[in-house]
Design a protein that fits this description.
The complex is a heterodimer. By secondary structure, chain A is an all-alpha fold. Chain A contains 11 helices and no strands. Chain A has one domain (40-287). Helices cover 68% and strands 0% of the residues of chain A. The longest helix of chain A is centred in the C-terminal third of the chain and has 33 residues, at 251-283. Chain B has 11 helices and 15 strands. Chain B has helices at 20-25, 60-68, 89-95, 112-122, 130-140, 156-168, 186-203, 214-219, 256-267, 289-294, 313-321; strands at 4-15, 34-45, 49-53, 75-80, 83-84, 96-100, 174-178, 206-210, 224-228, 231-236, 247-253, 272-277, 280-285, 303-309, 335-336. Classes of the chains: A mainly alpha, B alpha/beta.
Amino acid sequence: MSTNSDMAMPLSGPRPPPKRWHGRQSVSAVGAFLHMEWVGAFSYPLSFVFNQLTPVVPIVVYYFIAGLVTVTRVGGDYFTFVVIGVASARMLSAGVVGLGEPIDSAIGEGRLEGLLLQPIDWRILPFALVQWPLAFRVVNVALVIGLSLVLGAHFVLAGVPGAVGLCALGIGATLAFGIAAASVKVLAKRTDPIAALYVLAVAVLSGVYYPLRVLPRQLRALSWLLPDTYVISGSRHLLMAHGATTGGPTPWQAAGALFAFDVVALPASLWLFVRTLDYGRKSGVLAGY
Amino acid sequence: MTSPAVVVTQLSKTYSPSPLWLRVLLKTQVRRPVVALDGVTMTVPAGSICVVAGPNGAGKSTLFRCLAGLVVPTAGAASVLGFDSARQSRQVRGVIGFASGDERSLWLRQSCEDNVGFHARLRGVSRADRPARIRTALAAVGLADAADRSGFALSGGMRARLQLACTLVGSPAVVVLDEPTAALDPVGAHDLIGLIRRLAEEREIAVILSTHRVDEIEALSQRLVLLRSGRVVHDGPVGGLTGGDEAVVEWRFTSIEAARWAATRLTALPDTAVQSEGSTVTITSTWTLGALLQVLGDRLDTLESVQRQRRPLREVLVDLLRDPVGTDRRGDGTTRHGDLGAA
């Protein structure tokens, strides 16, 4: 146990709460989550490496399939076409699936209550929790792109900044979906079906593996509801030499749609998240009822 | 007089059945309104320890969550350092430290230092102050030498102390500990209770603690609040429960004659019941021992031994907290907390 001198100044006497948190304090609080996830992930290095490699392996499968697909509808290069689709979808999944995992784990391990008891603005929680899944996917997508380059994918370098921008806008949009799903999760405790449905919808409707025009008209209408559709289509226009032939919205159209969605949906989803927690305080859901 | 750090006034909480739309998402067992707290009033001064005890479902956890702003009361109010828990939840969370007996807030793969550092960052401790505060918090709970050890490598007692360090690093004015010794062995529990007592005294922290252990209730007997079915059935020192002002004293004399003489004199005292058997006299009285002894006058040398008797606390608590089936059912269709399980 400690001596009196151990307990000198730094902890002596209660501190009044800050009247208003500075941006730096919020950034520090958000960064605290990234640090803990980082330390946790690297305490199992082999698991981390395998988790990173698993999504990379299918690229080899697409490489061989690409040898069979020679239609011009995919910009004349199916391998690059599908790599852009897979990489974009993987990156954007951080918003819905990526946020869902830490919320699930916080609820399952009972850590959510502990987090809600901290003097942080509850609106920063989704951003704090999504950082690690996002960082994990950045590395993952970098590996996917790296392997695809080795296997002969061709990207237009000038289009990279634009594609990264589209991806950022897309993550904002999927994060809005994720936060809305997290709001339901706080009340319902489980929303795995929402994430599963989203992943399925993206795989079928957003043109990850094939151009949108192959979809029936009715299904194609649903494609426009998914942010992934805009990011994938816009990125193909930017990154493929003949990207314009793949169809779908142009980069500017995609950026405009995603920006509009972000501006409306992100604040709305955060409002919903905080309102849900407030409802939980009143109903007792947060205390287990 | 120290100003109260925590003020709870007529606090009530009734959990209502979930609306239909929520039942679609989550099947819940709450079919009728459940009264978890019913007009609880209490204050806790800075630097003091208040033990909250009661059977499972008595409303302890709801009370704690109301204090921390995680549950909004149906009626009444709770405030911490003047901040209203319902309306100023974030300010309250800034001055209150909360830890539960399980390991819910710990990141077990990470080190003690990481865990305390995480809480320091969430509580807005600046980067410059952080290392010193982390070291001090760990030292305060006796984990300075275990700073690099991961949560998995700690014993149950050490994990409980780590939780306390995480709570202390934010320099809270009020610490709420929900069954902090629930998972500890007797030695670990004893050490932790000693530590909590010392911290409360040295740092002027108001500590509110729940426990089911009778030995802890006796050890922390400054103040005991007993809850039953959401109501306060006792608020005061433990001594008030086990006899309080009215003590039972057994005197043994050197002879039967001396005992009879003393019994006759003692019976004359007001508020005193005397029972004599052989050379033993049993006295139940509100008089102090000194006052009773004066009755013997110059026959004091006939007194062989004095034994103060108290009713065991466990028995007193069982009598107070036993909730006869049906007595707490209300006529208005509501049910007392504990009658129905949580969802």
